[in-house]
Each structure stands twice: as C-alpha cells, then as structure tokens.
Amino acid sequence: MKIAVIGAGAIGNVAAGYLTLNNETVYLIGRPRTVKMIKKNGLLISGARGETRVNLEVSERLREKPDVAILAVKTQDVEEALKDNLAFLKETCLLTTQNGVRADSLVAHHLPVENTISSIVMFGATSLEEGKVIHNFDGDWIIGKMFGPNDSSVNALQALLNNIFPTIITDDIRGMKYLKIFVNANNCIPAILGMSMQEAFADPSVSRISIGIWKEGLGIVTKSNVTLTSLPDFPLERLGGLTAMPIDEAAKIFSGIMINLSKEPLYGSILQSIKRGRASEIDFINGEFITLAKENALESPLNQKLVEMVHEVERANTFFSKEKLLAETEKLIP
Q1: How much is the pLDDT for 160?
Q2: Which of 253, 274, 293, 331 is the most exposed place for a label (fewest CB within 10 A)?
Q3: Dihedral sign of CA atoms 153, 159, 165, 167 in order
Q4: Which CATH architecture has domain 2-171?
Q5: What is the CATH architecture of 177-332?
Q6: How far apart are CA 35 and CA 297, in angstroms?
Q7: Residue 299's closest CA among 233, 226, 224?
Q8: Mean pLDDT score of the chain, rounded to an integer?
C-alpha cells in the first residue's frame, strides 16, 4: 500500500515516521525548506517513544497516485494542498485530520465525499524546526465518515492506523469534532503569551480564562442545538462538571491537568504556527464559537477578544504579558 502524508508538520511527521517504521511505503509532502532538511538529515522523532531518525521519501508535491492520503495540513491550508496535488487524489481514500469542523466541507468542493474519511487526533506532537518533531504523548486516532455511514474503507483504514496508534471508529464524528474544539480552544492562551502549555496553565489565574472559554462555548453550542459526543479520553461529563463548579475551584483542577500533560514542553498548534511564521488555525477553533454565535444571534465576547489577541500576535510578532492578558479578559469571563 502506498500512503501519502500531505503536510510535514507535527501530526504529519509523526504519522509518516511511524508508518515508515512499520514498513509501509510512505511519501511525505512538505514545504521546500522542510523537504530539503529531511532529504539531508532524515526525520528526527523524539519524545514519548524515545528518539529515532527515519529516512523516507519526501517531496513538495505528489508524483503518483497513493492508495491512501492523509491530509495533515492546517485547515487554512487545505485548499492549497488539494489544488497542488489534486490530479493524484481524485480516486484516492483521503483522511482529514484537521481541528475544528470545516475541513471536510472544504475537501468536498474538490473530491467525492464517499472517498473522504474524517478523523480526530488525540495524541500530542510539537514541531518547531523543519525535520524534527517531538511526540509529546500517546492517544487514540478516531475515524469516521462525516457525510454518510461508515463502510469497508473505514475498516481498512482502521487496520492500517492501528499499527501506529489505537484507532477507534465512531458513527458520530461530527459530535466528537465539536467536543474536540473545546479541547483545542485553550491553545490560544499559550499562543498569546508565547509560553508552553505547562508554563501558561501553571498559574490558576490564567486557567480561569480556560474555564471561561468553556463556559461561553458550551452556552453557545447548547443554544445552537449542536450535539456534543464524548471522546475516549475527554468525556462530555468533564466539560459539564468543570463548567458547573465555582470557577476558582475548576481552574485549580484544570491547572493540575495541564501541567502534567507531557514531560517535554508542549506547544499548542496555534503557537507552533506562530513560531514558524505562519497563520494559525484560530479562526477554525475559537472562531467556530464566534461563527455559531453570529448564526444564532448570540454573543461571544471572551472568545472574540482572544481571537483578536492571537491575530495581533500574528501581525506584530510580539507576545502579550500575563498581566495584559488577565486585564483584557477578566471582565469577559462568564
């Protein structure tokens, strides 16, 4: 089986590296600088499973039709990645991996929906340098059809991915993806501060903002009639329980969870993009709460402010102080 991994960032590198180590034929597609570095030095993976250097095929575009393509670019880069490689993807089983809920609809503009499988990545990875990735922690890979019932292609993909991560098939990928937005929605805070997750959330006063994000977001999705479905490692009851507690108590619990996520510093996807000089996916994570709020005549002041702050960091390439973050958000926390 020929497997293309389109996107040589954190998730793409981990998937391509581990599939190669499992003796699969893998083609990694990346940006020119990344391709050059991996061709020269191989792909270095460190972290949860030790350190290894992987030699694999890497190029800027597909050159032949794969049997399976894993689309591992950020949502804002989906259109460009598809257009660059479309000639070889039209009859291929394609797996989306993006955060948020918009990627599958974007893919549907170019490829038949019956050929596309959606997924949720629950393992953690960090890539701040071309050709190097830290696998921070293990987790499940959840897959399922977004626009129809699961079929034999989903079972075949599960069999493949199970060799590198425990892979779970769900009949409600949409409900799980909306809940995953809550998991990712706190990535904006380390991005605004320019800190690792552990550094940022060690302070319970910062963790109060996270509980505020969840409270505001939960109110929006509930009033928008969006159904949330539990994730294997993040049950819906956890979200409900923490948002129902007194906020200072919930913040202390949240802080304890976050500082123990990984032995290595963990940088969320938004900060990773900023550190690599690229646009982040903030509009498809916290921005999804804003979109739902606008569609349903609701308000989202806290998430709106945080999205604005991330975009300011992107524009100015300067991070906010913790004091400035707290001052800007304190009155907006529900």
Answers
A1: 97
A2: 331
A3: positive
A4: 3-Layer(aba) Sandwich (3.40)
A5: Orthogonal Bundle (1.10)
A6: 46
A7: 224
A8: 96
* Within this chain, domains 2-171 and 177-332 share the same CATH topology: no
Side by side, which strands form the sheet with 93-96?
57-59, 25-29, 2-6, 68-71, 93-96, 116-121, 141-144, 167-169
DSSP string, 10-29: HHHHHHHHHHHHTT-EEEEE
CA distance 239 to 86: 39
Q: Which amino acid is at 268?
A: G
Strands 43-47 and 52-54: antiparallel
- Please list the ranges in the chain whose pLDDT falls under 70: none
Distances (CA, A) of 17 to 23, 95, 274: 10, 17, 24
What confidence score (pLDDT) does residue 263 get? 82
Written as six digits, the tokens of 13 are 């590198």
Instruction: Give the whole-angstrom CA distance, residue 333 versus residue 112.
Output: 42
